[in-house]
Amino acid sequence: DLFFSEQFLEARPLLTAMRQSAGSVLLVDEIDKSDEEFEAFLLEVLSDYQVTVPEIGTIKANVPPIVILTSNNVRELGDALKRRCLHLHIGFPDHKREQRIVQARVEGVSEDLLEQLISFVQSVRELDIKKQPSIAETVDWAKTLLLLHANALDEAFVRDTLNVLLKHESDIEAVNTDIPKLVREATSGKPMYPGQFTR
To answer: How far apart are CA 102 and CA 107, in angstroms?
Structure first.
């Protein structure tokens, strides 16, 4: 009985959230990547605001936490879980908003390069690919371009860094054929000249 007591229990985020006297906000990110057993366990948290620990008992929330789940639809969530949630679809941001996000996260990107890379990314999202680049991947690509001292998009340079933006080889191959057109559109149809960027 000594070993099955609270002094040997390590509180994880769910239990910690239940124990906050002033309430809490609990974020469960990418719930669709968890296994179904965890999803079933989460039902108790969402319906009764409590956690049951075998051999110890049930620990109820002092103040019901605000629980936020995120999902990228890697797998279908169970109906029982979805019934306990309010659903809000958040799509990709528009051009201006994504620009502001990248500016806030990546210091020192020129206005021209920022405009071009956002235009390129948003065009890539319209293609038929397995995984559209996320905002985090746009930020990573901007950081990569900045570290490599790029001042404009270039067709060859885009090919060299496309794996930062796209995570599936099949997507890279699919986009490869469209790179000349996408770069022209992103750079407002201006002709590409050698030395337009500096590595």
So the answer is: 8
